[in-house]
Each structure stands twice: as C-alpha cells, then as structure tokens.
C-alpha cells in the first residue's frame, strides 16, 4: 500500500493545503481487496481521520482532502480507455479547489466564502466542525466506498450544491495572513539559513 502526504506552499504563504492519498492498487494498477481490508483492519478509518485532523490543525491548512486515489481524481485529469492517466489540464487558477473527495477540509476562509450554514446543510454523509472554524465534509462512511454508484451521485450532488465557482476560481476566499499566521513575506529555510522557516515569526 502506498500512502502519500503532500503539504503545499505558494507565494511564501506556507502550508496552503494538504493532501493525504492512499493507493490500494496492486502492481498492475488494479484495485486490491486484500490491501483494502488490511488498511481498514490495521489503520482504521477513524485513525486516518484523526491523523488528518491533527495535521490540518498543526499546519493551519486553508483546505485539505483525504482521497482514495484509485477511484478519485482531481479536476482536469483525463484518462485513456485502459484507465491510465493521459494528462492533466486543471483550471489555471492558483488556490482553486481541485475537486471533491472522500473527506474535504474547508478552512475558515473557505467556510466564510461558501457560507457556514450552506456547508453545514450540504448533501453528504457527515459534517464535522473544526476548532479553527473550519469544516470537514465527508461523502460517505469510508473512502473505500469511492467506487460505488451512490458515491458518485453524492459527489455530483455536492459539486452542484456548492457550485462550480469554487473550483474554477470565480469564488475565492480571503486567505488568512499576519497575527502569527501566514506571512506573505516569510522567507523559506533556504533563504534564512536557520533551523526553521520564519513564517511563524
């Protein structure tokens, strides 16, 4: 099983978002039921969410996702008849949401832009409010549900409910900066020569 964590930064506003993906594919690239069972039995869905929630809090992410990368893809990815990825042509807008996935972390700025009441009322499996004012929107009970027809219908309903503007960049939040948060003029470690980035200073 391959698990990857991406923490992204841009414009020296470090840690804009996080992506936690897990692959349950075999060497031929096909979904592996044994790996899926091993994942659920050894890691557990609640532990996956707990770790992700902690990472979100530690890095102060604007947004984040938990995705089953065998069945869930970012907007703009396109595939051949054999299922192999041919290319990627996303909306050319920095900071636009890359799609909807099993768990969708909306930081306070996205909650404000999309509307708290609207997000809390979203058509989904479950909503969880976060201590910083963010919200997690879960599409189903488990990321292993991503192959199901109902899951795809629910994802489409949520996308239509939120509207495509959040994914095309027409609706962009005001990102948090300053007050001990993300400083736009913070320098990365390679420039400071220090032991940590000066973003939090």
Number of strands: 8
Strand content: 15-25%
Structural class designation: alpha+beta
**What order do the helices and strands follow?**
EEHHEEEEHHEEHHH
Low-pLDDT runs:
10-15, 194-201
Mean pLDDT equals: 76
Indicate the radius of gyration in whole angstroms. 17 Å
Instruction: Indicate the overall shape.
Output: globular
Largest sheet: 6 strands, mixed
Helix content: 25-40%
Number of H/I helices: 7
- In the sheet with the most strands, the strands line up as 1-2-3-6-8-7
Question: How far apart lie the N and C ends?
Answer: 38 Å
Task: Give the domain tally.
Answer: 1
Quick rundown:
The chain is an alpha+beta fold. The chain contains seven helices and eight strands, in the order E-E-H-H-E-E-E-E-H-H-E-E-H-H-H.
Explain what you see.
- The protein has 7 helices and 8 strands.
- The chain has 201 residues and is α+β, with helices and mostly antiparallel strands.
- It has one domain (2-71, 100-170).
- It is globular, with a radius of gyration of 17 Å.
- Mean pLDDT is 76; it is low at 10-15 and 194-201.
Chart the SSEs and their pairings.
Blueprint lengths: L1 E9 L2 E11 L9 H10 L2 H15 L3 E6 L8 E3 L5 E4 L14 E4 L1 H7 L1 H5 L5 E4 L5 E4 L10 H14 L2 H4 L20 H4 L9
Parallel strand pairs: 2-3
Antiparallel strand pairs: 1-2, 3-6, 4-5, 6-8, 7-8
């Amino acid at each position: 099983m391959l698990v990857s964590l991406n923490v992204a930064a841009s414009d020296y506003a470090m840690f804009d978002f996080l992506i936690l993906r897990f692959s349950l594919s075999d060497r031929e690239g096909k979904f592996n039921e044994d790996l899926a069972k091993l994942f659920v039995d050894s890691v557990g869905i609640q532990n996956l969410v707990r770790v992700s929630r902690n990472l979100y809090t530690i890095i102060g992410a604007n947004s984040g996702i938990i995705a089953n990368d065998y069945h869930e893809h970012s907007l703009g990815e396109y595939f051949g008849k054999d299922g192999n990825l041919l290319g990627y042509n996303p909306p050319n807008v920095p900071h636009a949401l890359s799609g909807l996935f099993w768990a969708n972390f909306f930081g306070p700025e996205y909650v404000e832009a999309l509307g708290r009441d609207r997000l809390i009322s979203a058509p989904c499996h479950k909503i969880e409010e976060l201590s910083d004012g963010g919200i997690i929107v879960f599409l189903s009970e488990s990321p292993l549900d991503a192959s199901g027809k109902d899951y795809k219908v629910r994802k489409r309903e949520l996308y239509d409910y939120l509207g495509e503007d959040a994914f095309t960049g027409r609706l962009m939040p005001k990102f948090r900066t300053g007050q001990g948060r993300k400083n736009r003029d913070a320098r990365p470690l390679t420039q400071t020569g220090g032991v940590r980035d000066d973003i939090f200073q």
